[in-house]
Hints:
Largest sheet: none
Strand content: under 5%
Order of helices and strands: HHHHH
Helix content: over 70%
Radius of gyration: 17 Å
Number of strands: 0
Number of domains: 1
Shape: elongated
Number of helices: 5
Amino acid sequence: MRTFFDLLISSLLVTILIVLVNTSSNLIWLNSMGMPINITLIFKSFFQDLIGMNLSSEIPLYLLICFPLIISLMVIKILVFRGISPKILYYSLAGAVAILALVILLPFAFDNVEPIAGSRTYMGKIFMTLSGLIGGYYFGSKQVRGLHASN
């Protein structure tokens, strides 16, 4: 049960980070076009994107992120159970690879349209991949800590 909640929290963390990357990318572009950006606009845009991309879209971003991330982390959990080390590194890489695969393969499913605007550039893809790495690290740290606590 603990693993299930760790997976959900990890997916939520990655979703929040990806929305942050997406919002930042859009605001940087708007700023380059001459639109004044202030702290109020940054927070308002972030929270509107967080709600809109998860509750108002046809396919919630959380679900798009959740499935590949959970699959990759569970595969690594099975491999870690078999004894590979260092455990947190593998969880982190699994999270990064899952999100990188998502941002690279998702446009093929949508006729070459980037459904996550922040992943249009290489920098966007890199930051989203780092978001997956952070989510994988979070999950791995919880799993490794849980293993040590039970021994």
